[in-house]
Amino acid sequence: MLNTAVLGTGLLALDLVERIQASPHLRCGLVIGRTPQSNGMAQAARMGCATAAGGITALADAGDAFDIVFDVTNAFAHPGHWAKLADTGATLIDLTPTSGGTLIVPAVNGAQAAAHRHIGLITCGGQASIPILHAIAQHYRPHHVEMVATVASRSVGRASRLNLDEYIEATGSAIGQFTQAGTAKTMLNISPAAPPPPFRVAMTIVAPGVRPGPVRELVESAATTMRAFVPGYRLLSCAVTGDTARVVVEVTATRGGMPTHAGNLEVISAAAIYAAEQHALAKIPALKETVR
Questions:
Q1: Residue range 105-121: average pLDDT?
Q2: Which domains does the chain have, with CATH numbers?
Q3: 124 belongs to the catalytic site
Q4: pLDDT (mean) for 9-16
């Protein structure tokens, strides 16, 4: 088993802890928060994990070697975390909206995860949209791509709200990288509606020659692949008009510890565990066939 540490104690971090504990290849060695009395720290302790306060310095003070560190803090803190971990041999999996590290989307280039020690997971919007957009872009050269994500206010924590500009920039940059589109535009809507709406992503791709039948096949195939990682991933609509394809997907959380509207958290949590398990399997070749 690979020893892991989780930097952060929010809902997303706690879902990671639960996933780690359920993995046959990972163990949760430490959960690190900012303050010792937070609700998240207490919950992690109730889950049976060792906890420490003080941020990244607590990792060095723990006196333990960690194979993988999950960064679930914020985009401003992440560069400093990598600077401290770069020479330790640990793999850092970044769940903050930064453009650092090798960008991994399991449904697209997940096989590359084991080869890199600094992994960026872009954003929830990136994880939900890039598999669809990439599938289309492999067959049609996109001139322009747009992605609009709508998330429930209750599933957007303080760190995410501080990183809205970074979210937009990181998502747009990654979409451009994975699709090679001439231009890429992203938006994020935070909805205060009650009951909270599910996570929804609307995509528009302008590419000469797109046709309804082939595009629908590409999109359905990509959605099927995504459901292997995120069971609540669902294609709502796919339409082509002229040179423009429009696709809408919805992601609901299916895990017991997550409210159903928090599909935005589930999609990136699943990507993080997948990347970590690829590292574990690379170190244990006999187990490579057990995780897909």
A1: 96
A2: 2-121+267-290 (3.40.50.720), 124-259 (3.30.360.10)
A3: yes
A4: 94
